Amino acid sequence: MGSNVLVWGSQMHEMSLCLETVKLLDQQAHIKGFRNVTAVWLEVGALSCVDPAALQFCFAFAAKDSVAANAKLHVICQQAIAWCLDCRQDVEIAQRGDSCPHCKGYQLTVAQGDALRIKEIEVE
């Protein structure tokens, strides 16, 4: 029992994100007049602190009894890009606090890869 609690606890963040995503889908269904969501594409940034595998796991539970109950979740992993103020170019980083791979400077501003967003939905 203890290991199940640990696994579930580590996915609570992703479950709340999935619940909010499904809430948005339900709201859009009401506004736009569609009955079913058949597919959802979520863009997950490398710096978003979201585990794509946990999102996949949680989505089916969050979508139960909603317009997305039978929807297929597609996760699009987005790389993290930062602007280096020292060498004035976009660089790919693996995590916050990384140095610029070109000049080794630390004057970086994240340009992409720190968000989670609904990229596309397929409805009927």
Mean pLDDT: 92
Helical content band: 25-40%
Distance between the termini: 41 Å
Instruction: List unreliable stretches of 5+ residues.
Output: 1-8
Structural class: alpha+beta
The helix/strand series, from N terminus to C terminus, equals HHEHEEEEE
Count all strands and give the number: 6
Oligomeric category: single chain
Radius of gyration: 18 Å
Written overview of the protein:
The chain has helices at 2-10, 12-32, 52-63; strands spanning 37-45, 72-78, 80-84, 89-93, 108-112, 116-123. It has 124 residues and is an alpha+beta fold. The strands form 2 sheets. Strands 2-1-6 form a 3-stranded mixed β-sheet. It starts with a helix and ends with a strand.
Summarize the structure.
Helix content is 34%, strand content 31%. The protein has 124 residues and is of the alpha+beta class.
List its salient traits.
124 residues, alpha+beta, 6 strands, disordered N terminus
Give the secondary structure arrangement, pairings included.
Blueprint: H1 2-10, H2 12-32, E1 37-45, H3 52-63, E2 72-78, E3 80-84, E4 89-93, E5 108-112, E6 116-123
Parallel strand pairs: 1-2
Antiparallel strand pairs: 1-6, 3-4, 3-5
Helix pairs in contact: 2-3
